[in-house]
Design goal:
With 109 residues, the protein is an all-beta fold. The protein has no helices and six strands. Strands 1, 2, 3, 4, 5 and 6 form a six-stranded antiparallel beta sheet that branches. Strand 3 and strand 4 form a beta hairpin.
Length: 109
């Protein structure tokens, strides 16, 4: 891997990465385009995640989700962790938030 952006044939802001397979490459892949995923960061286990559209931030940058319930909605302040595939890891910093809670998606604050 290049030690700085714009090295080799990579554009500025990109890195050139060379991948060497372990073992033989199947013949049907020779000359074909392939997709390789390189995890940059990951969690240590299962996390609570909500759709990105459920996250609301205020002017100070504090994040929250609105949980829907029979008595109406309630705002739960959260700390946002890693995000991927349209979802973000969250940890409640005040109030209760649990697996199975219904969160409001796309509401205006």
């Amino acid at each position: 891997m290049a030690d700085k952006p714009g090295t080799g044939e990579a554009s500025e802001g990109q890195y050139e990465i060379r991948i060497r397979p372990v073992g033989a490459v199947p013949a049907e892949l020779h000359g074909r385009d392939v997709r390789i995923r390189v995890p940059i960061s990951s969690t240590d286990g299962a996390v609570l995640a909500v759709p990105l559209a459920a996250l609301v931030t205020d002017a100070s940058g504090a994040a929250r989700v609105r949980v829907s319930g029979p008595a109406g909605g309630r705002d739960v302040p959260v700390t946002v962790g890693l995000s991927s595939g349209g979802f973000a890891e969250v940890r409640a910093t005040g109030g209760d938030l649990a697996e199975g809670d219904l969160v409001v998606v796309g509401a205006r604050s």
